[in-house]
Design a protein that fits this description.
6-stranded parallel sheet; mainly beta; about 10% helix
Length: about 300
């Protein structure tokens, strides 16, 4: 997908020096593979042998990691269904040895299938499902977000839904099926996990070449106290609030990222934060490209 936008070549040039330099000063490599890995392993080898092998989850690699390590995520074609949290010293680095997560184009997905027995009939082809957690609801058909109809805040009643449309009302998701069909006839999933990657009080962090999608709130959230955090070649899509949220006193740079099709906004900037967007694509006419309640913004080197 990145090649379609012509971004991968320039991105590799930006980040290759980071990888080479980190290896040169002795950063450990920790390997993750969600098909062949085992969380009982030490993550020190990319393939399983008698001497060890990769771990199965990125979360386990983060648990094993120390400052300045390099986590290598295998792109197996199967999404990693987990939420990640980076905080404090073990998930930070220094300028010559940043903490690095290399995604290799893998997908981090926060969605889960809607259980077929969770749908309640309302009337006709209209059905209702109550997710176990509230917040920014999102409904998908396959990997594609479905059209959401807004609820009239003054009337407080359900809108007219066409087949394949849905809305969120009173803590429930309402979905209208086609005539003669029920939700079990569709490959429906919902945004279940809250945030794809949460960053809190970390510094000198690089996260590159990863797709983050289907989370209930944000794809990536630099909550507070994040310094010299660089995101390279990420695709942040189909999340319930924002693809990227930067708040508190965080300082984040995003290079060559594609951020689109998120429900409320593509980028949320708040607090005393600062965000630099370099060669980024903000897509989706249905939601604002940017929501700001504070912070400083730089786009391709210019203050906005």
């Amino acid at each position: 997908m990145l090649n379609r936008f012509g971004l991968r070549t320039s991105l590799n040039a930006v980040f290759v020096s980071v990888v080479v330099l980190a290896d040169a000063v002795g950063a450990r490599e920790l390997f993750v593979n969600n098909l062949t890995g085992d969380d009982r392993s030490d993550a020190r080898l990319p393939t399983s042998t008698a001497d060890g092998g990769p771990v199965r989850t990125i979360g386990r690699a983060l648990h094993l990691a120390t400052a300045g390590d390099h986590i290598v995520v295998a792109n197996t074609g199967t999404p990693y269904r987990e939420a990640l949290s980076l905080s404090a010293a073990n998930h930070s680095g220094v300028s010559v040895r940043p903490f690095l997560i290399e995604g290799n184009g893998a997908v981090l997905d926060g969605s889960l299938p809607v259980p077929t027995d969770a749908w309640e009939p309302v009337v006709g082809e209209l059905f209702r499902f109550r997710p176990p957690a509230g917040g920014y609801h999102q409904l998908f058909l396959g990997a594609r977000p479905l059209v959401k109809k807004p609820v009239d805040a003054l009337e407080g009643r359900l809108p007219e839904l066409a087949p394949g449309e849905w809305c969120s009302h009173g803590g429930a998701i309402y979905f209208r099926a086609e005539r003669g069909k029920a939700p079990r006839d569709y490959d429906l999933s919902y945004a279940a996990l809250p945030v794809g990657i949460t960053l809190y009080h970390v510094h000198d962090v690089r996260i590159v070449d990863l797709v983050v999608q289907g989370f209930r709130r944000d794809g990536v959230n630099a909550h507070d106290g994040c310094l010299d955090v660089r995101l390279g070649g990420l695709t942040l899509r189909g999340n319930g609030r924002a693809g990227l949220a930067v708040g508190g006193s965080s300082k984040v740079e995003a290079d060559g990222c594609i951020i689109g099709d998120n429900r409320t906004t593509q980028v949320n900037l708040s607090g005393w934060s600062a965000l630099s967007l370099q060669l980024c694509e903000l897509l989706d006419a249905a939601a604002p490209a940017m929501t700001r309640t504070g912070g400083k913004l730089f786009v391709d080197g210019e203050a906005r």
